[in-house]
Each structure stands twice: as C-alpha cells, then as structure tokens.
Amino acid sequence: MPLPQTDHAWYRALLARCAGLPPAVTAVVHPCDDHSIAAAAEAAALGLIEPILVGPPHRIHAAAEAAKVDISGFRLEPTPHSHASAARGVALVRAGAARLLMKGSLHTDELMAAVLDRETGLRTARRVSHVYLMDVPTYPKPLLITDAAINIAPTLDDKRDIVQNAIDLAHVMEIPLPKVAILSAVETVNAKLQSTVDAAALCKMADRGQITGGVLDGPLAFDNAISPEAASDKGIVSPVAGQADILVVPDLVSGNMLAKQLIFLIRADAAGVVLGAKVPIILTSRADAERTRIASCAVAVLMALGAPPSKAVA
Fold this sequence. Notes:
2 domains; 11-stranded mixed β-sheet
C-alpha cells in the first residue's frame, strides 16, 4: 500500500507569510559540513535569513566547496573551534547583531550550553523547550509536538513553560485558541503513573490562569487525542480529544520517537524551533530533509520578526 502524501500546502504557506518580511540576521553556529552550510545558503537564497557564519574559516570554506554553494556574500566570524563558535554566536545575539540563532554541525548540547549559560547566555524567565510543527498527511491540520529535543525528564514546572511556549507558537501560526492534549498511556489519573498526575495538574493550572491562550485536557492517550472515533469509543467528552492542535509528551524519549515515526513512516513535513530563550533557535539535524530545514527557518523568522496574516496559496 502506498504511503499517504502531503501536498506541502502548509510549507508553501509558511514561505508566503515570510515573503513580506526582511531577512532575519542569523548567527549560524559552526556550519562546518555540507548539510549545515547548504541549509544556511538556501535559506538566504529564499530571503528568509541573512547569515553570519560563525566558525573556523578554513572548515566553513571547505564545507561550502563540498556543498557547491557560494558564500562569498556572507559575513564570516572566525572562531577556532565549535565551543568558541557557540559562545560567539550567542554573543552576537546578546549584542543585537543577530536576531536568530541557527545550529550548524556542532552537537545540540554544546550549543545549548552556551545558550543557557547564566552569565553570558540567552536565558529568560521561561524554560527553554523545543517544538515540532508538523504537517501529517493523515491529519487534517498542523500538529505541534513538544518537547522532543531539549528537556529529558521535565518536571511539572518545566511542563508549564513547555506548554506555554507551544501555545505562543500556535498563536503565531494563526491558531488563535489551540487545543492542547497532555499525553500519557491512559486517560485516567493514576497516582502510580506520574505523567497522568502532571497532566491533571497542568489542566488545573490553566483553569487558574497559570497557563493562558489555549484549551487543555489530559491525561489523554495518543489515540484519544487525535482520533474522534477513539475518543467517542472511550466515552470521552472533551473540547480537545480527537482534535488536538498541540501534543505535550511526558518526556523527551517519547516525544522524539513520536515525531520521528511521523516523519519517517508516513512522510510528515516538519519544522523544529527552540523557544523560551531571548531569540528563537533553529535546530536541525543532518537527517532532516531540505524542506524541514527551510520550514524551521521560516517558523523562527515569523517568531522573531512578527507574523503577517497568511496569504492564499494555490
């Protein structure tokens, strides 16, 4: 049986909304392989970003040659190694010289260590978290999944910020009152299953105004969150069940597996961005398709520079 296919309308709509914005000056941290330098060059060619390439010049030029891209028009900030690249990229943002941060070929932990440094980083009062924005061929609307990349085993307080970050992104994506499903293995509260207790607490936090801008329900199992039929079969009466816009996973492992299953098994389009720092952070990997890397840049640009109303896309 052939796999379902997305028509990529969501991806085209993202680019259409960015068309009215100036390129966002972006510190591209350590783009020292062909994948990361090609992503930066393609995003620049589409008018999404104005790259500042931060890293060892000889390695950046070698990567550009391997990728067959012209970087002669890009500003280059020389650094001796990846650790220094992360620190310099963050410093450019702190100084106001860049509006976005983009991960190159260094490890995510190394970049985030510089971002989260208490003295020189980009911390805010909000917990930093990652959100996948996905176009799933078998789901009728965009789907946000969080957190699948940053917070390994988030506490209840962490999850409050994770939820709020995702809601804020949903608003930028023109989802005015997103339906937020707090996932677990079951849809009833069980004191032995901490994710169900956290889900119930998050819903009460929303009732008390500690989380704003969305409608929360949980705990919900995955099927009950995205399938009206499954929710009906279980007798769940909820404004969220069966029609979630945001899926909040219990931990990084479950979120990472869920997102990658959708990407690799049913060819969902995806964009990934880190929120909660002073600027959005574009976080991509070598395994990401070109469309994923460009969509991630577009989402970050909309977050950083403001989001004009969407335009009709044929």
